[in-house]
Description:
By secondary structure, the protein is of the alpha/beta class. It has a single domain, classed as 3-Layer(aba) Sandwich (Rossmann fold). It is 29% helix and 22% strand. It has an eight-stranded mixed β-sheet, sandwiched between helices. Helix 1 (57-68) runs parallel beside helix 5 (198-210) and helix 2 (92-108) crosses helix 3 (121-132). It is globular and about 40 Å long.
Amino acid sequence: MSKIEVRPLPAASLTRVMIEGPAGKIETDVNDPGGARRGVALVAHPNPLQGGTKDNKVVTTLAKAFFALGYVAARPNFRGVGASEGSHDEGRGETDDLVAVAGYLANHFGGLPLALAGFSFGSFVQTRVAKRLKPAFMVLVGPAVNRFPSETVPADTLVIHGERDDVVPLAAVLDWARPQGLPVVVVPGGEHFFHGRLNRLADLVVRYCRG
């Protein structure tokens, strides 16, 4: 199997759109590979109350990995972040917003298979979104299960966590995953933001999607 190189998102592929949501406009960056698109990946960012945005490096790494595989990669700002309207709603309204963005993407890209991905707080929100939509698969990175009441997820969900995460202890993720019989991929030495290990993170996502 040939290796896919994960490169920076090309500026020419980027469209910034303002999608109508339940609390107003949702600022969303969409990178479209064009041609024979494989699917659509909706990527959710970490807690906005702690500075999380669509430009977070883990979020952009996920988007790069999906784009390299031929997915349309969409990164919305949650309500109250950047140019997105509304105010933080502890995951409730954010769930509604992601469902609205998914609807926009389905209308504009012909109902392609939907992948849900999230980092930290974004993973929590995506567990809620998955209860309302039927994603082809999910990728959750550093899911903040010790801070937010994350839902159960499909059995084929890819969960990636850092061994030395001091924001969300690995033990908390295992406690959440264990009753579901859900495997967790542990990155040795990795911490919450995967400093120095973003390429490894991208490779894990690429290999999972191709497999």
